[in-house]
Each structure stands twice: as structure tokens, then as C-alpha cells.
Write a structure and sequence with these properties.
The protein is α+β, with helices and mostly antiparallel strands. It folds into 2 domains: 4-179, Probable tRNA modification gtpase trme, domain 1 (Gyrase A, domain 2, 2-Layer Sandwich); 185-242, Elongation Factor Tu (Ef-tu), domain 3, CATH 2.40.30. It contains 4 helices and 14 strands. It has helices spanning 14-19, 64-78, 128-135, 171-179; strands at residues 4-10, 33-39, 45-53, 58-63, 84-87, 91-95, 104-105, 114-118, 185-193, 201-204, 207-216, 219-225, 233-235, 238-242. The strands form 3 sheets. The protein has a 6-stranded antiparallel β-sheet. The chain has a 5-stranded antiparallel β-sheet with strand order 2-3-4-1-5. The longest helix is centred in the N-terminal third of the chain and has 15 residues, at 64-78. The radius of gyration is 19 Å and the shape is globular. It starts with a strand and ends with a strand. The model has no long low-confidence stretch (mean pLDDT 96).
């Protein structure tokens, strides 16, 4: 997949280093894969990625659009830690068909199939937008943006945050949203009756209720104010209603 970059983190402190920065428990990546994000100190999204634990390194699979930013941030946090961070020439492939040797199950949801890291692209022709909309799975740069709080995008359901692992950048905000507040905004699957496009504003009774993101057929992922999403809404020329 030409839209992914695979970084390598090596060195004696690699697990401890990343553990103190990201939303998930990096120790669980040993011999496997976890999904995680790096946040600002204010708890907002910087980048989401997969961490693959190998014998002598951690691989970090990140969207190409966010790779430079992630590499810059990780380098900034490195300080005196015994770690080295570099870009590899590995290719991240994914699919939902027969599982190739060495592939890992996507940790976010069973419907997302497998991920593989090698020197050739063996991805299949899965309709990823259809799967994402059906299972309410956000995408880097679409539903996941710098204004995003990850709990509003379903990160907990996607196994992307661990509330027991201890401190990481932005942890205090995430914990407060989890334990002390009720989410008033977030992603939801919606039904469209009519024509609407990603980016269209969603209104309810003339008031802004959210924005439309990924569209697949007559369903879509929307970011909504839940207090204004109790009845029919409008986006473009479509009537919008909450999905199941």
C-alpha cells in the first residue's frame, strides 16, 4: 500500500520509550500487533498507527500523510533514551481474503482482515470504505483529524486505548473523558435518503448538528452532536437519520 510508511524503532529502551508516549500498551505487541495513537498534551489526535513487536525492533505502520509528523514527534521525545528511529523499505499490505504466511490479524475489528509486512504489495481489492462505514471505523485524515479526541471516534471499541497501562502524552484528558464526562459528540453511522457528499454540513431544525464523512452507498460515517441527532436531519439534498 503506497499510502503507508513503516518505521523501525530499535535499541534497548524501545518498548519503554514508546510505552510512555502512546495510548495503548506496547508490551502487548510482543510477537503481535496493537493499534494506538500519539496525542498532544491536550489530548488531541496527532497520528494513529499500528505497532508490531519483533525480536529486536518495533515496527510502526502509519499513514504516509502522517509519517513525517510522527517521526518528528518521536525524535523530539527521544531525548537520551537508547533508541534509534528510522524509516524502513517494508511495504504494508492488507486484505480480507486468504491469510498469507506471516500476516497479523488487524487488531481493530475482525472485519478488517489481516495486515502483512514484506517487500511486495500483496493487498487485495477489498472495498474498505464499505467495511469502515458498516463497522464505524475511522480513517486517518478523514474522521481522524487534529481537532479529534480519540474517544469520540470509538478508539476504545477499536482496542486502541488502554486505561490501565499508566501515563502517556494526553492520558489525563482521555481518562477524564472516560470516567468523568458523558460524550456529547462523536462518530455515528447514518442512513442517507437522497444525495449528499463527504464534507456536507448536517443540520437539524436549521441548526448545525455535525458533518458527513465517509459515504458508502446509502450509509455514511458522520460526526454528530448527539443532542441534535434525535430526529431527521439534512445534508445536501439528503435526509439523514441515525443508523442502527
Amino acid at each position: 500500500m503506497s499510502d503507508r510508511v513503516v518505521l523501525s524503532i530499535t535499541g534497548a529502551d524501545r518498548v519503554e520509550f514508546l510505552q510512555g508516549l502512546v495510548t495503548n500498551d506496547v508490551t502487548r505487541a510482543a510477537g503481535g500487533i496493537v493499534y494506538a495513537a500519539l496525542l498532544t498534551p491536550q489530548g488531541k489526535y496527532i497520528a494513529d498507527f499500528f505497532v508490531v513487536g519483533q525480536d529486536d525492533r518495533l515496527l510502526v505502520d502509519v499513514a504516509q500523510s502522517h509519517a513525517a509528523t510522527l517521526l518528528q514527534r518521536l525524535t523530539m521525545y527521544r531525548l537520551r533514551a537508547a533508541v534509534q528511529i528510522a524509516q524502513t523499505n517494508l511495504i504494508a499490505s492488507r486484505g480480507t481474503g486468504p491469510v498469507p504466511e506471516g500476516a497479523l490479524t488487524d487488531p481493530r475489528h475482525p472485519a478488517l482482515g489481516w495486515r502483512h509486512y514484506g517487500h511486495s504489495d500483496i493487498s487485495d481489492q477489498t472495498d474498505w470504505d464499505a467495511i469502515r462505514v458498516a463497522h464505524l471505523i475511522p480513517e486517518t485524515g478523514i474522521e481522524l483529524t487534529p481537532e479529534t479526541y480519540v474517544l469520540e471516534t470509538g478508539f476504545e471499541a477499536l482496542h486502541g486505548v488502554d486505561f490501565k497501562k499508566g501515563c502517556y502524552v494526553g492520558q489525563e484528558i482521555v481518562a477524564r473523558m472516560k470516567h468523568k464526562t458523558e460524550l456529547r459528540k462523536g462518530l455515528a453511522r447514518v442512513q442517507l435518503n437522497g444525495m449528499a457528499q463527504p464534507g456536507d454540513t448536517i443540520t437539524a431544525d436549521g441548526k448545525e448538528a455535525g458533518v458527513l464523512h465517509t459515504v458508502s452507498g446509502d450509509q455514511a460515517i458522520a460526526y454528530l452532536r448527539f443532542d441534535r441527532a434525535n430526529g431527521p436531519m439534512q445534508a445536501g439534498s439528503a435526509t439523514v437519520t441515525l443508523g442502527d
